[in-house]
Design brief:
alpha/beta; 2 domains; eight-stranded parallel β-barrel; binds 3-methyl-2-oxobutanoic acid
Length: 275
Amino acid sequence: MKMTIQDILALKGRRKITMLTAYDYPLASLIDQAGIDVILVGDSLANVVLGLESTTQVGMSEMLHHAKAVRRAVKNALVVGDMPYEAYQLNIPQAVDNARRFIEEAKCDAIKLEWFDKCLEVTEEIIKAKIPVMGHIGLTPQTADKLGGFKVQGKDAETAKKLITQAQRLEDLGCFSIVLECVPDRLAEIITKKIKIPTIGIGAGSFCDGQVLVIHDLLGLFERFKPKFVKQYINLSPLIKKAIEEYKTEVISGKFPAKEHSFTIKGEELEKLKS
Ligand code: KIV
């Protein structure tokens, strides 16, 4: 059964919500078959798929391209499109149009956007347009330079209080959930208790209503760096490299393709062809 926003809201306090990122058809299909509740087409696409340094380097066209592929694969999970930086932080009037493109063109169920100085105005307009919004506070990678880099946020009472207020404002505006990225676990616990919508943690400890990971981190498919909060459930990179090396050896030696990988032509046809 297809997950709805109402289903996600109803999970708070009943069971933990599971969320993973996906960017393409095959992995989205496997994640969906495994019964994950929410699939985020994250702007982490920039790092883990496109080999870029920063998430600010992807735009709407790349995000929509991948969101469409994910959506084709998914039968049950709620699909959330991640608004890239240029889609809402540079030109606020365009933010609603871009949010609508995720819903209408890519058939996503909701969008996510990161906290920034005009976040409340933009979120309010998108929700007014009847587009479900997932908030994202704490470490917001698109504007990490303004937060002192890729650091845990809310470690002192003053900044922690700001994060609590941000979460409450986003709830008041009608967001259906909020990602808490890289905040102390006890702060995540306070936020989770204070708001009625689910919190989804990444580097935010075990008290959140749900958890999200980047699928390439979980599978060991991203070798450039591994944040402390990542649990690698399998390390696929060496397995994939080994398979590719075996293929190379077998092609060079002539072991592949074997008879069973080849097509045949009837002997008489071959004779006709040769004569
Ligand atoms: O783009 C992404 O992968 C994200 C998650 C880290 C929440 O925003």
